[in-house]
Request: fold
Amino acid sequence: MAISVKVMQRKNQEISYLRAALKGMALTFSHLKRPSVTMQYPEETKTEDWKLPERWRGTHRMLTDEQGRAKCVACGLCPQICPANCIKLVPGEDEEGHRYPLVYEIDEFRCVFCGYCQEVCPEEAIHVGQHYENAEYSRDRFVYDLERLCAQTHPVSTLWDPSDARGE
Amino acid sequence: MTPELKGFLLVASLKILVAFSLVNVGVIMVIWAERRVSAFLQDRLGPNRVGPLGLLQSLADGVKNFTKEETYPAEADPVVFVLAPVLSFIPAMLAAAVIPFGSPLPGFDMTLPIIGQIVYSGEIPMMIADLPIGFLFILAITSLGVYGIVMAGWSSNNKYAFLGSLRGSAQMVSYEIAMGMGLVALMILVGNVTLTEAIARQQESTWFIFPLFIGFFLFAVSSLAETNRLPFDLPETESELVTGFHTEYSSMKFSMFFMAEYANMITASAMMATLFFGGWDIPFTTWDEGPASYLRFFATFGVFLAKTWMFMLTFIWIRWTLPRFRFDQLMQLGWKFMIPLALGYIMLIATTVWVLDTRGVEFGIVYSLILFAVNLPLTYVLFSILDRGKVLGGSQHKRVKVSA
Reply:
């Protein structure tokens, strides 16, 4: 048995092919006069209605103390929590018992930019940053060592605050 | 060589150069325009980096396509596969040969260094060849383009390409009939098929858009279908057939299909401008019909370009607005609407012309205004039929009563 389909009884002006086509043509023509919404990227990195969000998680940055040393105490939490296993940390200790990283490398290729390292860091040393223009000419340049992480200058990402979930 | 032969050869080769580069530069420009206008219609900017305003974008794409790898499907027919883009490109370029792109230039008799004396007596018509078969030549040559599509789809050994080429051939064959018959009405008014005669008759009376409004409608819709542009781009339909007949083509072979499409679009626009909008005729003045001069040529050339570009921009505007037809709707429109309409229209125009001629009405402005008056009620009836969805109304005309 054939399936009977209920056909809606609509007015002619609602189903009219020609009027809909003309309406569409008028609409697209009206868009000719509207300003473009394109952001001219390499020249412009933000516009009036768009900028990089505060919580953007991009290239890492290691913060330093007044003496210019990395704040990291090599506690080992960030390589522990890192889901992509991209942080390589070899801890060291000086004569006074201060722990510091002998080797601290982040492979930005492996990194999934989850930001857990920043969340877990007890010293607020490692951060993800508001930065994304990190193209390089060779793959090995994507492994950032401690010196390079400390030399980054871009603003760091702010953590999500549960009491202000929408960031207002 | 006699000076006359030298003059003829020189003029002919110059005209070929001008017409050919006109089409090729036109293709480059119209591809750029398509991308820019579509961007503006969608509140974007489009290509604006290569050259001023992005004008050289198409050239850059051409260079890129020349240097890209050519891929051949393993099971493709090598000869036909290579031949197909050529067969679709050449007819598209050839069709421009008979379109007059400006008022005639004066002849000359002068002596050049090396070449010697060259003579061209009489006016130089501004088309490569003023063929006595006129627009029949264009119809015939542009129909050859369907071979390119069929061969591309068949030789690719790809089911999507094959379906695309089947659709393309069915569509182009169907709409050719409506297109040709739409022009029969014009033939009745002109009494000839040459394009120069068509322009001369339009200068005598009014542009043929008025006396042959429905004819223009038929021609415009069919040329959209003939050039495979939206809303009739069934051979390509990227949503269902990847890209249709040129799915398997890469690098410059793809570019040739692409350029052929735009060259066809230029030809169709130039045909519409010539046959229905007076060609190079400047409206509201008879100055351009005077004796041949260089000033007149450049003025009329500009007017012809402006008219052609107006149609090309309309093509682009339509493409970026209207959705694609379903294939059965396309065939319905072609066979159940356009062809009967074209046949009826020939009868109507022939009867009106016969009545007007037997009453002794002079061919001129009044003559074409009477024909325009005949067109108006038909236009109204036609569009109300289209509008009420009786032909293309989807499910509306098959109302099924459902019991509770």
Q: What stands out?
A: Residues 3-387 of chain B form one domain. The radius of gyration of chain B is 23 Å.
